[in-house]
Amino acid sequence: MFSLDLLFEALIFGVLLGCFYAAVSIGLSVSFGLLDVPHVAHPAIMVLGSYCTWLLATRSSLDPLLAGVLLMPAFFLVGVLVYRFYYETFERRGSDAAVRGLAFFFGLAFIIEVGLILFFGVDQRSVEASYIGKSFRFGDYRIPMRMLVAFAVALLLTFFLSLYLSRTFVGRAIKAVAQDEPALRLMGANPVRIKQWAFGIATGVSALAGAMLVIVSPVEPAMDRVYIGRTFCVVVLAGLGSMTGTLAAGLILGIAESVVMMLFGASWAPAVAFGLLLVVLGLRPQGLFGR
Amino acid sequence: MRKALSFVAGLLLAGFAALASAQGNPIKIGMSMPQTGSLGAGGQAALLAIRMWVEDVNAKGGLLNRKVELVVYDDQTNPANTPGIYTKLLDVDKVDLLFAPYGTVPTAPIMPLVKQRGLLLMGNFSFQVNHTVKHDMWFNNAPWTDASSWFDGWITIGKRVGGKTIAFLAADQEFAQNLANGARELAKKAGLQTVFDQNYPPTTTDFSSLVRAIRQTNADLVFIASYPNDSVAIIRSVNEIGIGSNVKLFGGGMVGLQFTPNMVNLGSLLNGVVNYNSYVPGLKYPGIDEFLKRYAQKAAEAKVDPLGFYLPPFNYAMGQMVEQAVNGTKSLDQKKLAEYLHTHEMQTIVGPIRYGPDGEWANPRVIQAQFQDVADKNMDQFRQPGKQVILWPEQYKNGNAIVPFDKARK
Amino acid sequence: MKFWIGAALALAIGVGLPLLPVNEYVFYAGYVVLTYVVLATAWNILGGYAGYVNFGPPAFFGIGAYAAVVLFKWLGAPLGVQIAGAAFMGGAMGFGVGLLTLRLRGIFFAIATVAIIFIMETLMVNWRYVGGATGLQLLRPQVELYASYTRMLFAVIAVMAVASVAIARYVQESWIGRGLRALRDSEEAAEGCGVPTLRLKLVACTLSGALMGAAGAPMPMYLSFIEPASTFNLAYTIGSLGSAIIGGMSHWAGPIVGAILLGSLQQIITVTISNEMNVLVVGVLLVVFVVAAPEGILGLFRKVLGRTSK
User: Fold this and answer.
1) To the nearest whole angstrom, how far is the Cα of A205 from the nearest Cα of chain B?
2) Parallel, antiparallel, or unpaired: how do β-strands B27-33 and B97-99 relate?
3) CB interface of B with A, residues 300-319, below 8 Å
4) Is there a single domain that holds both residue B153 and residue B211?
């Protein structure tokens, strides 16, 4: 049942899905891509963001997106603390920080997951807003508004983060710390404080991504597990630490899944995404848009 | 020597046991229940109902003049946990009777165990789990037998409203696949033309493209076999994308639309969906209204499914059946109990139940009901009959289907 | 020598205990614990010695389980053949992963292994012969010698646990282990000193994969059921990685200690506290250990011993 019409449509939905993937991954693109922190708890923190959004949005009838924005400073602080802790216990000790750091974040993810179950229960949660459930008509196509929200969030985050990293002093320092830490130290800057700041930003961004997640689909506490693979897939595909690369990688993943879904059926979609990741890792480990 | 020793030990044990029971030590009923994981929400509601039965039976003086005690563990919806839990229940806790965990997957691994040991097992909303093992002491509390018990009603309604083509969408998960496989065959038998047939992975985030693909096929009937999280997402996508004015019947096997939080959240988006159910208001079973009233109070405290139509009454019924069998046979002998359950009609709050030789209901009673006239953000509306209009089985019918699907949504 | 006496003793208990009239529950719970011993020991060959974090134990475990099911369904193969087949498949996959990811640094390797879990799960979900997403119920054959199939499985997994520990110990003490440790500390330096890092990584990957595959083989028969979602469950990652880290990664004994502790703890919590706390305990333990006792229980032990001897 191949037709140009279907292909076109697969592309549209692929782009929307891809932007969604980019938006959930962009925080990780900073924390893992730039800072080399094996942050497998990133999706868990995002789901935590979703639940906090839900709490704010239902209790005080705030718009979920606004709630997500309001949560960003709090999550920024959490991120700063988490990084500080991570640095003191692992990075400073050196040697195989990677293995233990990984295990630490893995444990953290589980603690967050169970914390959510204890606090919110196992039911799934969803939020309400004027744009959820509506769709945007475009010729014969109807596009869900919530996916357009994801689209906008992804574009905005990519835009502002790239701008921040290339135009501001701190932003450039973050990029510098990723490339050549000793040099930065020689220049008299404190790399730990810069990384701490950057990790805070990454976590703050996760709050907004979490708000977007709960807008796009209902959330449940164990949802982070699905996104561990997907987010790392996007960041690695992108090549570490490139914001526009993250958007592009998200798009590739989204379009690949969407086209495969059309050609071979939905049940093959996950294998293709991860197969793509393996191929990239095998052939070009620095990622498609790597530095 | 060893034989003699074990004989003496056995004698002693038997003596102690006799002594203990004479002093009225409790009858222990053991089970695992998914309280976390994908079936956790349903499991917690079901467990509350079982606890209510235990309370009730103890208020009446227990069984055989002994108190009933429930021993329950959380299997986390993981089948790898249940064999260990059930041997612990049997060999360490020494329970007298067994209830199965909610769901097919956690139940499957314990079937050979109970068969090998010749134990009675009261099944709990699993689907065709006794199919391979063929244990003759298995009794499922779910109102279905095989796929035809689900699908016949839906397809009859579908053909009646003029359906000729059908589309299938099923989750790539155990139960949904079992159901869809059966449904596919029955659709072929019924002479329906399949125009779309896809499985989707449980990690699917957005159903827009699938819904749109179904829409493009212009199918008359759309059969969905989905899991709770997906069911909500699918209904939302259908609302956004539109399924096409041609669709006459939509739904069938969507798990999760029976759970109160989902029903309240989706509200008017549910209108028109014709989906399976186990109990909906309007069914007149003796004692059910009183049960649901009491359940609602307790559920509010326990923060579980507030209405509890889907699982709780049947879990309570499971207790009632054991109660009748034990009182009827005046014994805890597993064989006698099983024979009693096979040969007698059980009276429960979900109506009379008679068992077939495979331990499933002799007369399955899966309800196909259409959501009609549902408003947003209102839980109490679902307590009245008429919000879920019963279309099948014929003898319970209390309204007519609104077709096509789009019409019911206006 | 001491090791071999211990091993023989463990073997004798593992094989002999199921013959005695011991409570059946011991074998059901013990089976799971011993599975974790095999998984954690296998994980440690790559993760502990070489510093390569494998997030994919479910993939290897799962391919082993499914290989066993295929052999059983297709040829009616006995358990021994199933295990051999599973080990072969697991080893082959380990070799493949090794080849594909040779050039990858630690975390990238970890991500590649996560990808493999999802790919394997998708393949099995779509493969009707082994039940697909619906799963497959299996009827256990009759057993001889042992009173029940589970008792026999316990003996089998006990043998596998002892064997995998012996292999891990051999690896640790031979040139392979020395090379892997050199490679963990600095891959470039090791390469410079003429350590065949490529070959070593391949050996470790293959061996680790084969053992994990073998660990999966008896699982379908233990459950008499197989289904992809629970077979490729992330719980196996936490179990193997957590056991190795909690026990201590630098020595072959670490994963055993960790697996026995973590495995038994989980079994006990399941039947005592029995709720959400169950998952929490593992997470908390993992964090506490990596933060406060990076050398694991063995490290703590050594510290205490060192202090008293001073």
Assistant:
1) 20
2) parallel
3) 303
4) yes
B273 plus B255 within the same structural domain = yes
Q: Are residues B137 and B152 in the same domain?
A: no
The distance of B208 to chain A (nearest Cα, Å) reads 8
C234: closest chain B residue by CA: B78
- Hey, are the CB atoms on B240 and A123 less than 8 Å from each other? no
Residue range of the domain that includes B55: 22-143+286-353
With CA atoms as reference, the chain B residue closest to C29 would be B84
Long-range Cβ pairs for the range B256-260 (8 Å, 24+): B256/B226, B256/B227, B256/B228, B256/B229, B256/B230, B256/B231, B256/B232, B257/B231, B258/B309, B258/B310, B259/A123, B259/B41, B259/B42, B259/B228, B259/B305, B259/B310, B260/B305, B260/B306, B260/B307, B260/B308, B260/B309, B260/B379, B260/B382
Q: Could you tell me if A220 lies within 8 Å of chain B, comparing CB atoms?
A: yes
Is C29 close to B172, i.e. CB distance below 8 A?
no
CA distance B367 to chain C (A): 24
Residue B258 is part of a domain; what is its CATH number?
3.40.50.2300
Task: List the pLDDT tens digit at each of the 310 positions of chain C.
Answer: 788 999 999 999 999 999 998 888 999 999 999 999 999 999 999 988 988 889 899 999 999 999 999 999 999 889 999 999 999 999 999 999 888 876 776 778 888 888 899 899 989 988 889 988 888 888 888 888 888 899 999 999 999 999 999 999 999 999 999 999 888 888 888 888 888 888 999 999 999 999 999 999 999 999 999 999 889 988 899 889 989 999 998 899 999 999 999 989 888 887 776 566 766 787 888 888 888 888 889 888 888 887 665 4
| Cα distance between residue B345 and residue B361, in whole Å | 11
pTM of the full structure: 0.88
CA geometry: angle at A143 spanning A277 and A265, to 5°? 45
In a domain? residue B13: no
CA distance B36 to chain A (A): 7
Query: Hey, are the CB atoms on C283 and A108 less than 8 Å from each other?
Result: yes
Query: Is B201's CB within 8 Å of A123's CB?
Result: no
Q: Distance between terminal CA atoms of chain B?
A: 82
**Are β-strands B121-123 and B138-140 bridged in parallel, bridged antiparallel, or unpaired?**
parallel
Residue of A267, A272, A274 to mutate, testing the B interface (most B Cβ within 10 Å of its Cβ): A267
- Closest Cβ opposite residue A220 in set B203, B229, B240: B229
User: Is residue B31, in this structure, part of any structural domain at all?
Assistant: yes
Give the nearest chain A residue to B376 (CA atoms): A128
Residues B164 and B137 in one domain: no
Q: pLDDT tens-digit profile of B220-254?
A: 999 999 988 889 999 999 998 888 888 999 999 99
The answer to whether residues B29 and B60 belong to one domain is yes
Contacts of B306 (CB under 8 A, 6+ apart): B260, B296, B299, B300, B379
Count of domains in chain B?
2
The answer on B71 and B211 residing in a single domain is no
Q: What is the ipTM of this complex?
A: 0.85
Domain parsing of chain C, residue ranges: 2-233
Same domain, B40 and B93: yes
User: A9 and B41 in contact by Cβ < 8 A?
Assistant: no
Q: Pick from A126, A142, A258: which is nearest to B242 by CB?
A: A142
**Which residues make beta-bridge pairs with B167?**
B196, B222
